[in-house]
Amino acid sequence: MRYLILLLVLASPMVCAQQTVQPSVFQALTSAQQAQQQGNYGQARDTLQQALNQVRAGSLEQALIEQRLGYLAIARDRHEEAIDWLSKALAHDRLEAEAASQDRRNLAQLLAVAGRYREAVTLLEVEQARGALPRDSQRLLVQAYSQLRQFDKAIPLAERVVREEPGIDAAWYQLLVGMNYRLQRYSQAERWLKPMLRREPANAEYWRQLAAMQSLDNRPRAAAASLRLAYEAGVRFSATDLDSLVGLQTQAGAPWQAARLLEEMFERGLLPANAERRERLAQLWQLARDRQRAESAWRSLAEHSGRASHWLRVAAVQMESEDWNGLLASLARAESDANAEQRRQIRLWQGYARQALGEPEAARRALLEVSDGRQAEEARRLLEWIDNQS
User: Fold this and answer.
1) What is the pLDDT of residues 263-313, one digit of tens each?
2) Distances from the Cα of 58 to the Cαs of 224, 264, 322, in angstroms?
3) Is this structure's pTM higher than 0.85?
4) Which burial class, exposed, middle or buried, applies to 11 when counting CB atoms under 10 A from its CB (0-12, 13-18, 19+)?
5) Is the separation of the CB atoms in 33 and 14 below 8 Å?
6) Span of the secretion signal (predicted)?
7) What does the DSSP 8-state code read for residue 56?
8) Residue 220: pLDDT over 90
């Protein structure tokens, strides 16, 4: 998900009237301000450095000069230097409360731009504890939390931002979608996708995301219905887009949802059920350990193609289910199209099935035919086990 980056718009506070400052320091601050406004940054810095060398450590005057040096560094695009000066100025705890609050918020923006999100969060949480954060600071705190993957903290703030400004950039809705997705709150992610679709009903990416959230939320029928609704409204999806949507469920560790979504797409005419996709469906059912559906899917392919590889897939599911008679029948169907490697696999599995059915001699005959290839060692071990049992 993409995150918003706020523009660094920083105030440049002058000395507060409530604070009494040495006249020489006040003059230095004023002169530096004028030089800065005229673009004479070097002169402004020299004036402030000279004044800094003459003030008492820990004084209000030191804090004000360091504060001004911080804002001067910002004007010169020296953000690390600005962070250093503003941190020093705040550390003295001498600045008037309103000015210090503004400095903390500005410093938090600098830290966020520098990628120092944890420090930015610390400052903004201090401000939050003191009272309501301005809207820009709320947004910055959301972004910092999200960068730190503290989504539980970010989401309530982001929701407040969106509620207060429903016409806000779509990226904020997308941020809420992304954070809820990361927390596997798929129905909440779906909730924030819907305003985006109302704004841009022809946006295919939003429809794909909606279908993905519904599928991950164990509602593959709703996901396929959403895609069909979009299609009927004129939104066109490529086969690659829809295949990728199924892949998303697989990557998320949800093969059952992926299989159901693919099946629904077949039924609604969104994807052609070619041999490659039917193989994928069978593989997904097998990955989901839904043996009944996996066997049915592989059998449908095998009966249509007659390929040994497909019949061996049927046999593999039957072996997991310990359906020994069904396994033997499938192996017999595989044999006519089998190559040498596949025939060795057939004999090995026949050995297992015959032994399980209480036919050790038939098992031994099958296993003795597996004299080479990668199955040979497994056949030898099974033969030894049969002999020991005898």
Assistant:
1) 988 988 888 999 999 999 999 999 999 999 999 999 999 999 999 999 999
2) 67, 71, 81
3) no
4) exposed
5) yes
6) 1-17
7) P
8) no
Nearest 5°: the CA angle 365, 367, 373 is 140
Cα 112 versus chain centre, distance: 21
Cβ proximity of 86 and 6 under 8 Å: no
Q: Which residue type, as a one-letter code, is found at position 184? A: Q
Non-local CB neighbours of 200 within 8 Å, separated by 6+ positions: 170, 206
The percent of residues above 90 in pLDDT, for the chain, comes to 63
Give the distance, in angstroms, between the CA of residue 195 and the centroid of all CA atoms in the same chain: 21
DSSP letter for each residue of 112-172: HHTT-HHHHHHHHHHHHHHSPPPHHHHHHHHHHHHHTT-HHHHHHHHHHHHHH-TTS-HHH
Is residue 371 included in any domain, yes or no?
no
- Dihedral over Cα of 344, 348, 351, 353: its sign: negative
Note whether residue 47 is domain-resident: yes
For residue 111, give its domain range.
Answer: 1-11+24-52+61-149
The domain total for the chain is 1
CATH number at residue 4: 1.25.40.10
Residue 89 in any domain: the answer is yes
**Residue position matching structure tokens 């779906």:** 190
DSSP string, 210-251: HHHHHHHTT-HHHHHHHHHHHHHTT----HHHHHHHHHHHHH
Look-up of token digits 């007659």 = 306
- For residue 40, the 8-state DSSP code is -
Q: Is 8 helix (H, G, I), strand (E, B) or coil?
A: coil
- The amino acid at residue 114 is A
Angstrom distance (rounded) from CA 371 to CA 331: 19
